[in-house]
Amino acid sequence: MKQALETEKLYYGFPIFILGYKDEAFSYNITTASSSYSLGDMVVIGLFEGNNAVRQIQKSGSFTLNIPERKEALIMESAGFMTGQDKLSELSVSYSQAETIDAPLLTACPINLECQVETVQQWEHYVNFTARITKRWADDRLFDEKGYFRSTDFHPLIYMGDSKKRIYRYLDEEDSDQSGSFIKKARKKYDKNFRAG
């Protein structure tokens, strides 16, 4: 049985990120968001139209997408609740200059993306930025001995909930399966000609 989920919002599991951007008032600034998706070198983020970050990113045409883990949770949450302030200074956030765009890379976040805006689309009270990823950065600990990304060592915060209550969920190494593993298991269990779908 199912029942209608009457809610204005439903966050069904999105990684939280901290946007870094050029700010006319404070040189650089940050804010927290959770609405994004990425395909290849494209990333799309969505923000409420009244957000300072929207105005600043529309002017500068670029941003960094910085993905925190649990130990950066206080900075992540504070950056989302503070408005109209020099958040990098007030929160004592360490950062460096991005290489391909004019925006801050947050040192504490283990994953950073440099993004150049390609298109801006308004939808009701939200603004969607479609951007090209011009550079990706990851902490040294996230590379294996061959230089490949070690997914199981990366633990982003996941945002979930509805309009009444939102929570943070955490990923850990114990709950991991490789892509394609469910089909492989089904083939072994049923027969070698098993096809998904």
List keywords for this structure.
197 residues; alpha+beta; 7-stranded antiparallel beta sheet; 4 helices; 12 strands; globular
Describe this structure in words.
The chain is of the alpha+beta class. The chain contains 4 helices and 12 strands; from the N terminus they run E-E-E-E-E-H-E-H-H-E-E-E-E-E-E-H. It has helices at 52-60, 73-81, 87-90, 181-189; strands spanning 10-15, 17-23, 27-33, 36-39, 42-48, 62-67, 95-97, 104-106, 111-123, 126-138, 157-162, 166-170. The strands form 3 sheets. A 7-stranded antiparallel beta sheet has the order 3-2-6-9-10-5-4. Strands 1-11-12 form a 3-stranded antiparallel beta sheet, with no helix packed on it. The longest helix has 9 residues, at 52-60. It is globular, with a radius of gyration of 19 Å.
* SS summary, helix count: 4
| Fraction of residues in helix | 10-25%
Secondary-structure element order, N to C: EEEEEHEHHEEEEEEH
Radius of gyration: 19 Å
List the strand order in the largest sheet. Answer: 3-2-6-9-10-5-4
**How far apart are the first and last residues' alpha carbons, in Å?**
23 Å
Shape: globular
**Strand-residue proportion:** 35-45%
Largest β-sheet summary: 7 strands, antiparallel
User: What would the average pLDDT be, to the nearest integer?
Assistant: 93
Q: How many strand units?
A: 12
The assigned structural class equals alpha+beta
